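pasting for the record
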Amino acid sequence: MDGISAFSVIRELYLSYNDISDVSPFAGCDTIEVLDLEGNDIDDLSSIQFLSSCSLLSSLSLESNPVASQPEYRSTVLSWLPQLQTLDDISRGEDISNLAELH
């Protein structure tokens, strides 16, 4: 993923199930709006802060990554990335307590 920030016009990037463990290469991708990293190997919650420099990022999927099972994952990511409208296909304001009962 090194050099990804050199692509200055990427708006959507779908990289599900690619054994990605490091999100730092996405730092500075200021045109990206949708980033799908579902099913990778991201396990460091603090590394998600690298995405705070992606000012247009409105949709992020980290579902099925080890990081997504950590306590306070959702609230932490949403606090670090206030520009997000959707995290793991769930809208920012949606009540996730009901969703846990459905699964």
